[in-house]
Specification:
Blueprint: H1 2-23, H2 27-35, H3 42-47, H4 59-69, E1 75-77, H5 80-86, E2 94-102, E3 110-116, H6 121-140, H7 146-153, E4 156-160, E5 163-168, H8 177-189
Antiparallel strand pairs: 1-2, 2-3, 3-5, 4-5
Helix pairs in contact: 4-8, 6-7
Length: 190
């Protein structure tokens, strides 16, 4: 009798685990569609423009350019779940995004590029400021993360109608983060 109860319990747990795993699968199609942008056309690549064939921003190129100045160790790719739950952005406010952050304990390094929905650039910048303040408070709880807290306090958030960029220096970074963001914004405006 005891053996039978044990087997039933194990079977019930296995079924619960399978059901829970199945519940999380629906967001993957949303994540891949929100992240995808068409590759840059050959005409755009030669002119230095930062747009893809469908007229959207080539987010991959912008992230790569920012990572040259702000190399992030142990990169963790930002997913749709992070956009909504970590950054507090409404899915309908974000047309496309691309970003990475450090997965190292005590390193707040981040590069995030967002193509906002029409008229949502300012709201996204405001929400990223809130995220920044939350991160400053979080790292302030740990004396050993003083460098990360300082990096978050000096984060750069810049937005225009069709592009929002947030960069937090990695602990390894020695480059001019502000200058790199200004350069990207200027190139995109051309």
């Amino acid at each position: 009798m005891m053996k039978r109860k044990f087997l039933l319990s194990v079977t019930a747990l296995a079924l619960c685990a399978a059901l829970l795993a199945g519940c999380g699968g629906s967001s993957s199609s949303t994540a891949s569609s929100a992240q995808s942008t068409a590759p840059a056309s050959s005409a755009d690549a030669g002119s230095g423009a930062r747009t893809a064939e469908n007229g959207t921003v080539d987010l991959d190129a912008i992230v790569s350019q920012l990572l040259e100045t702000n190399p992030i160790s142990n990169q963790f790719e930002i997913a749709a779940m992070n956009i909504e739950y970590d950054f507090g952005l409404a899915a309908e406010d974000v047309t496309a995004y691309k970003g990475v952050r450090s997965n190292d304990n005590g390193d707040a390094g981040l590069v995030l590029v967002i193509q906002p929905a029409a008229g949502k650039s300012e709201a996204i910048c405001e929400q990223l400021q809130t995220y920044k303040q939350d991160q400053v408070a979080f790292y302030g709880n740990y004396a050993e993360f003083g460098q990360a807290q300082s990096n978050v306090e000096n984060a750069v958030i810049s937005g225009r109608d069709d592009l929002v960029v947030m960069v937090i220096a990695s602990n390894e970074s020695t480059g001019d983060i502000s200058g790199a963001v200004d350069s990207v914004m200027d190139q995109y405006a051309q």
